[in-house]
Amino acid sequence: MTALKLVEGYMPIQMLGEMGGLALLFIWAFYLLDKKMGIKVNKLAQATGLFLFSIIYFRYRIYPPIPFSVRAIYATMTLIGIFMWVSSTEASWQDFRKPCIAVVDAKTPTTRIIRAVSVVLLPFLVGFLGYNSMKPSTDEPIELRTVHPAPPASTKVHGKTFVLQTASNPYRVDDSGKYSDKVQNDYKDGNPWDEKAPQFLQYVREGGQIFFQNCHFCHGDNLNGRGMFAFAFNPIPANFTDAGTIAQLQETFVFWRVSKGGIGLPREGFPWASVMPPWEQHLTIDEIWKVILFEYWHTGYYPRTWD
After folding, report:
1. Domain range annotation of the chain
2. What is 154-299's CATH topology?
3. pTM of this prediction?
4. Rounded to whole angstroms, what are the CA distances from 78 to 48, 51, 71, 110, 285?
5. How large is the greatest C-alpha to C-alpha distance in the chain, in angstroms?
6. Please, are residues 190 and 197 in contact by the beta-carbon 8 Å criterion?
């Protein structure tokens, strides 16, 4: 679903337009089934199908992925819209509530079974949720800290100043040597270890070599934060395959974090629960950019832009 990318700068409007258009198409399909083919689908089933479709849309259509909390907000707004739709006319509302009333009345063997199962399971479900939310936790207290603190306007590495909003990865380039934010997608299935690999994949290979020489001990062979030393730390190292890490960050932000390490976090990042060393003390500027390039290529995520 991510093959047709949302247009940068117009993502909210495009998403709203797509959702509205697909919802209308969804409703129109049920209308045709009813009027042209004589297959009537109950409004409750239509509403359920439309809601499930919206969940899938928010999960797989939007890229980079959005956090669960944001998806929950969108899903709630969608649910409100669906409720307004099914209650827009008296006939529609009666059709929507008909299955619910049938289960409550239980005039048929099927509805009796459904009601009996619901009456038994619902108290257990409520009790389980209540118990699960109230039971004492053995987890340590939550640390109120900023996971991704606001970066500085610029950072100095090896005597060179980088303005984070205007800098870019010098190795994210196409075959002509020009910067391209689409080149990663062009070579997403390429083999960096091929002797005849294009220049971009050669940079990826060099970044991979640097990663496995320095970073995989903590971040893991699969970049999932499960390296051999990972569980010696709390919290464990970042899981780059998670949609909440580098997929949410600009490439220059990652450059700043890698260069300065945990000790370079600003005051709002306190407590500085990060043991990442300041890699500027161990790697060159080029090596840092290349390892970041490898991390994005390997995970399949793309850096966020400043739009």
Report:
1. 11-134, 154-299
2. Cytochrome Bc1 Complex; Chain D, domain 2 (1.10.760)
3. 0.57
4. 11, 7, 10, 31, 46
5. 81
6. yes
